[in-house]
Design brief:
single chain; alpha/beta; OB fold (Dihydrolipoamide Acetyltransferase, E2P); Rossmann fold; about 50% helix; disordered C terminus; binds adenosine-5'-triphosphate
């Protein structure tokens, strides 16, 4: 009996320890289980989100594609006449949920595929080319940034800037300013800069479109783009609409009768129509630029259209010097740099070439680990420009200035 009591007493601490260990184990298991539950809850949430996303995607995929149409007329009974992108015109009803106030001639709408019912009004979306055209409110180019074109700048100011800033004076004097101004000259001579500088001086919006991007292979697309570009210019007025490479559109018409040629012609006709319908004293000024005025369709140059042609030639010796001074203004030049010597060695080059020259010289300095541009960098840049970079015609004309 005594022995049993001793044995029982002896086992109690063991039992307590055992229970404590068991307790600790259970606590640890509980912690693990709790964190697993949390992880699983998080996973459930993320899977629910994924299911929602996939459900939306699935809905989109199940939805039949809609046809795009343009409203031509809204009839008194509420039905609309639409021109669909598939071709003919149709008279169709509009679904009840479509806001009747938004149904107007010219609005783009979506149509159900089976019965062409109007099921939605599309936001007025511009063609990506038009929407993506360079639009800048007060571009950061001023007349002071343009070198060697003093006479040209004056002419551009008179024909483009003053009709905007002194419109009342023109009105009083009864003078009709030129409707459109055509800048013609070799590439890189500063035509775009001139247009931007006018926009800057007049606080006007600058819009630049490249004519070759307006021409489309689908019938009527080019004309629509021209219309939209002019619409945008009017919307953003006062504005300067700059049409670059206008020869792509207005090259003299040939009679080869191909459909692509007819489409270019249609686009040109739309441009002419827009120009004709334009108020010369209005607050939208139009500037076009070309490297090839000689191949332009005479219709473009008729009075009331681009009736002022301004030559933007390659800069003279002094012009190149002035442009070089502008482009090296913020460059750290070594004491040995003699810009006159650089100009003497370049021969006739455009403003863009001068810019390239400075970049090349700067790059050479960087390549040699210098933080200052030396005369030898400019000489190396001139050699590179004369050797590899000049277009053939100019390279042929390169001769050292006397
Ligand atoms: P393109 O006919 O190829 O469109 P462009 O005549 O419109 O050329 P710009 O785009 O105006 O030429 O000029 C290109 C760059 O060349 C300008 O960003 C500018 O750095 C430089 N440049 C050209 N002409 C001049 C100039 N007269 N003064 C200062 N920089 C000039």
């Amino acid at each position: 009996m005594k022995t049993t009591e001793v044995a029982e007493e002896g086992s109690r601490p063991d039992r307590v320890r055992e229970l404590e260990e068991r307790n600790a184990q259970l606590r640890s298991d509980k912690r693990k289980a709790t964190s697993e539950v949390r992880a699983l809850q998080e996973e459930v949430r993320s899977l629910t989100r994924e299911v929602q996303r996939l459900t939306v995607e699935l809905e989109k995929i199940k939805h039949p594609p809609l046809i795009v149409g343009t409203i031509l007329d809204v009839l008194v009974d509420g039905r609309v006449v639409i021109k669909s992108s598939t071709g003919p015109n149709f008279v169709v009803p509009a679904a009840d949920f479509v806001d009747r106030g938004l149904l107007k001639a010219g609005t783009r709408v979506s149509l159900a595929q089976n019965n062409l019912t109007v099921v939605g009004v599309l936001p007025s979306s511009r063609d990506p080319v038009v929407a993506g055209s360079e639009v800048a409110r007060r571009p950061e180019v001023s007349y002071a940034d343009i070198g060697g074109l003093a006479g040209v700048v004056d002419e551009v100011r008179e024909t483009v800037e003053y009709p905007l800033t002194r419109a009342a004076l023109f009105e009083e004097l009864g003078i009709r300013p030129p409707k459109g101004v055509l800048l013609q000259g070799p590439p890189g001579t500063g035509k775009t800069m001139l247009a931007k500088a006018v926009a800057n001086a007049t606080d006007a919006t600058f819009l630049r479109v490249v004519a070759s991007e307006l021409v489309q292979k689908f019938i009527g697309e080019g004309a629509r783009r021209v219309r939209e570009v002019f619409e945008l210019a009017r919307e953003k007025a006062p504005s300067i609409l700059f049409i670059d490479e206008v020869d792509a559109l207005g090259a003299r018409r040939s009679d080869d009768g191909t459909s692509s040629n007819r489409e270019v012609e249609r686009t040109l006709m739309q441009l002419l129509a827009e120009l004709d319908g334009f108020e010369p004293r209005g607050d939208v000024r139009i500037i076009a630029a070309t490297n090839r005025a000689d191949i332009l369709d005479p219709a473009l140059l008729r009075p009331g259209r681009f009736d002022r042609v301004i030559d933007v030639p390659l800069p003279t010796h002094e012009g190149v010097r002035a442009i070089l001074a502008l482009h090296t203004d913020s460059v750290r030049l070594g004491d040995d740099v003699d810009l006159d010597d650089v100009v003497r060695r370049t021969g006739p080059i455009s403003g863009a070439d001068v810019q390239n020259l400075c970049t090349e010289a700067g790059m050479r300095a960087v390549r040699h680990g210098r933080s200052v541009v030396l005369h030898e960098d400019f000489l190396a840049a001139v050699r590179k420009l004369q050797g590899d970079d000049l277009p053939g015609a100019v390279r042929g004309a390169v001769g050292l200035y006397a």
